[in-house]
Amino acid sequence: MQVSMTVNGEEVVREVEPRLLLVHFLRDELGLTGTHWGCDTSNCGTCVVLMDGEPVKSCTVLAAMAGGHVVRTIEDMERHGELDPVQQGFMEEHGLQCGFCTSGMILTARALLDRNPDPSDEEIREAISGQICRCTGYMNIVKAVRWAAEHQPAAVEEG
Amino acid sequence: MQVPAPFEYDRATSVEEALSLLERLGPEARVIAGGHSLLPMMKLRLAAPEHLIDVNDLTELDYVREEGDELRIGALSRHRELLESELLGARFPIFHDAERVIADPVVRNRGTIGGALCQADPAEDLSAVCAAVHAKAVIRGSGGERVVEMRDFHLGPYETAVGDAELLVELRLPLRERAGSAYEKVERRAGDWAVAAAGTAVWLEDGTIADAGVGLAAVGSRAVHAEGAEAALRGEEPSEELFEEAARRAAEDSSPTDDQRGPADYKRHLAAELTKRALRRAVERARG
Amino acid sequence: MATVEERPVGFGRMHRKEDPRFIRGQGNYVDDVRLPGMLHGAVLRSPLAHARIVSIDTAAALQHPKVHAVITGKDLEEQGLAWMPTLSADTQAVLATEKVRFQGQEVAFVVADDRYAARDALELIEVEYDPLPPVVDPTEALDPDAPVIRDDKEGKADNHIFDWESGDRGATDAVFARADVVVEQDMLYPRSHPAPMETCGAVADFDKVNGKLTLWCTTQAPHAHRTLYALVAGLPEQKIRVVSPDIGGGFGNKVPIYPGYVCAVVASIVTGKPIKWMEDRSENLTSTGFARDYHMHGEIAATREGKILGVRVRVLADHGAFNATAQPSKYPAGFFHVFTGSYDLEAAHCEVKGVYTNKAPGGVAYACSFRVTEAVYLVERMVDVLADELGADPAELRLNNLIKSDQFPYEAKTGWVYDSGEYERALRIALDMAGYEELRREQAEKRERGELMGVGIAFFTEAVGAGPRRQMDIAGLGMADGSELQVHPTGKAVLRVSCQNQGQGHETTFAQIVAHELGIPPEDVEVVHGDTDRTPFGLGTYGSRSTPVSGASAAVSAGKVREKARQVAAAMLESSPEDLEWETGRWFVKGDPQSGKTIQEIALAAHGPLELPDGMEGGLEAETFYNPPNLTFPFGAYVCVVDVDPGTGKVAVRRFVAVDDCGPRINPTIVEGQIHGGLAEGVGMALMQQIAFDEEGNCLSGSFMDYLIPTSLEVPDWELGETVTPSPHHPLGAKGVGESATVGSPPTVMNAIVDALEPYGVRHLDMPATPARVWAATQGGPERGT
After folding, report:
1. Which chain B positions have a beta carbon within 8 Å of C119's beta carbon?
2. Which of B174, B203, B238 lies at the terminal end of a domain, its last residue?
């Protein structure tokens, strides 16, 4: 079947099997390997992308279901050579080690800050609670998101 | 990662279309909304429908609104929307209690109340919540609509009253004065299924409990609607002793089994303990 | 861009050099590797824990239009490849031939156009099994009538693997005999699994024309793997290139060679195409290297005044169906004999018995530091059990028994020589940070109201940086590590190391080592790792050995370069080398600081027309094959506060204080990150993680729905402190820290939970302390959960 959706601002049209999962569509069809996968049961969250601005687990969405929707992956976070403050925050606060959960964490943080520009630590922990990290022990991820929240306006001015 | 077996895909643009597709395609067709119950099963090849009918475009089924003396929730309402609905939180805080601990925030962006109820996993929370608040389920088929009490909606594990060519379209909750409700859940870890959970709703009149609803999750299908506990509460004045008695009856209503989440005796204890705690909070909210 | 003064040259906090690609989703993990014509493999696995294979019918699978090949054990047998050696001198089936020995064991390998077709094809393979009674409980494995699992071994009539002991049995028995107080306790360190976010996998590309195999693989030890493939598959070693690209977490899960890798290699040779095999999560949890599964019986002897005299342990080690643990070959129980812990004992003895069961193979993984996790858990729980028996405060008891600073280097009763330590100070700092007295007051108040709160303490001595090659080899490969440092004419450098990181930040910290030694800014030092074609030989990254061994190797190479630079500088300055003095980044003539040549100037001169002394070659580089003289012994003091809901058994970790000493910290931010991660792992192990089986040997923890890993909501903000006690033998004094927190945190959390349950008379509770188990303990239930 044919599926068409907007990915990172561009309209894409492809012929796919109905059963093709969105994560594989992004990685294998479109070559956007920044989105990862790590489990079979929708638990780990390494596959998180933004669909219509909200984080979803792309391993539990069919590419067909994403048809007609707007998808944003980690590759879209840097715009015109400018890092998103969330990306910068992860570097500033050592919010990543192996990097495998990082794409999903950054996108969820971006969506959180878009709805709630000044989240508390508890709200940040709640927002990322559907995504597992084995390396960081989470505290630096929370600090990274706080950094982004506190540097949001500065980034807008520079942009 | 595991992947599903092949199937055909259709997208419905209206409820009528969804129903007519279900009629045409027969029992090998399944409706998919949020997909976070069905797709994992399909990936593990525990389910292999030949046809999926995507109902995510049926935004006409996505609402929370007051209509007369009822609060009506569209079946396609996402968990996140229910958690964020001020109206629902004000009238039935049990929903907020429960949604906070259903799955995780990302899954809640997609999962729907209709999907959760129709999947009817024995540990699923909204079944117990809807039972506690004495909700009614509106089921639509080609022949029209029928309204079904929650106790008749739940037929057993993974079994509901929704027929092959029917759709759950709405939940209707009674709006009455002096209502309070609460949900208490124990899980092994944030986002996990309940080891056991209890939802309660009370409606007070002149200080006594005019009506009560008690629904338990993960402790046996009979306890989804804990009638014994409800009977103990009706007509009585709230008190710690009453809560103890209702809790005891709730434990009797339950028939938990040993599994990875815990042994049966522990779950039975939780059925009582959590019923008690949920009742305390529900009454407090009804009085407040 | 910070100036030289603002950013550290050498040790200090700096942003990680590897981050720019990860935050952009531009990492290159194995599943990101795509080669022209690449096919996909999938493994068919046994549903039964123990069964004879009656028949395998691959006809239907071969008929699938997208299937290129189906390989079975029989096919491999013809090539002598059905079995492969393990890292413990045992053998493991690559694909089962006559029998399957654990649920999830590899039975066939399918190659198809894409991963979806490969998955479909698995369902088309028909295998007929004849079930055999499984051996699941390790205590039953040695029953005389237990089924023999390894009947593939000539003459094998039981499920016994090894017996091993350490310490002085006679002296220990004597100490126990005369002690005022002896307490014993059974304790289980349950089977768990590292579960890195990225599963294991490989892309095998055999070039028929060149005869070269390139294997992209999730491996923590690329060179060791290369040599093993050469030995096993008979491929010429110079024609094998193992590339470990970005790895999404290792934690020891990616040390062994898995059958899937071997099948991918064979399939690539057979089809002439690149073959990708990436396991799914259930395969990862049910078939790859698990961790722990030590069934321990501990005893501790003391005077009634609370002086600990001795510790004695018997261990039954469940190794699964094949002995595939990865640890130095002379130590089948790894470094378990460091169970003497951080205390000055008069005697100690342990016996470890390894057995086979019908479960996945493994045991050494998950940041265990080669069984140090088990050892520290044992001794720290025993100290608390002793405290309970004596009615002593667990902090006081430890303070009175810790090895004193003037006793270092300390010879433990099982042969270890702890290099350096200042134990009491670290524990006092931790207690101070925690506000220990105040916590005990709060606990007393809460107990009066029936509220449960626990304070847990643990002190650990780690043993890392394996190791001296005479004592330590894995599969015959000595655990020394190579490094090569080249300084380019323009003063930039390339450091090639043999270790391979999976998130530890080596691209940054190793650059900082060179910066520290040579004054070349870390931005100007490229760290190359993970590719056997481009890096020197070494045993890889696990057991926290990167800093102690590879880091030392890099420091020594940098030191050699610095010395050569001295010679070159002397020639440039027309001075004698002895008259030169070093300050970061340059050599200058003593007493004349205005003179001097920077390392960059020296590098250019070394490559230029400068007349060099007789016998000296041009260029500015060095290599070192570093043989560590000893392990290093990081240590730490941890304090945990928990709140327990008596009505439900739920445990909440309120606070966690961790004081670590890993010697000088190359990059404190990275060190702290390593500790944070390990602490979270400890919470997971203590509260929720277990790879469980039923009596039929069915694995009950084959997905993240049942193998539970902590989320951001289960862990607190970590409160870290530090002391710095350099290692006397390491060139930088650094000790390594990667596994310290995973070692120290589980007993801290469990000590806190048991402490919380003190009103119920609970002396011990096994991990994981799930709500069900904690609640059962309040009901006078079994201490050891089912």
Report:
1. 2-3
2. B174
